[in-house]
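Folds abound. Consider this:
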Amino acid sequence: MSDTIMSLLMLAAVALTGGAVYIFRTGDRRRALLMFVAALVMFANVVIWLVPTK
């Protein structure tokens, strides 16, 4: 179950990053920046959950 959630989270973050690049090219920089920040938060969440512990 956890693997599926992590995979979906990574796919959503990649989609948000791609969407942010596309929207940045069309000229709406504020929305692109917000999408990019949301993608970074998703990437950070995955990294935090996958850090090995003792």
The two ends are 22 Å apart (CA to CA).
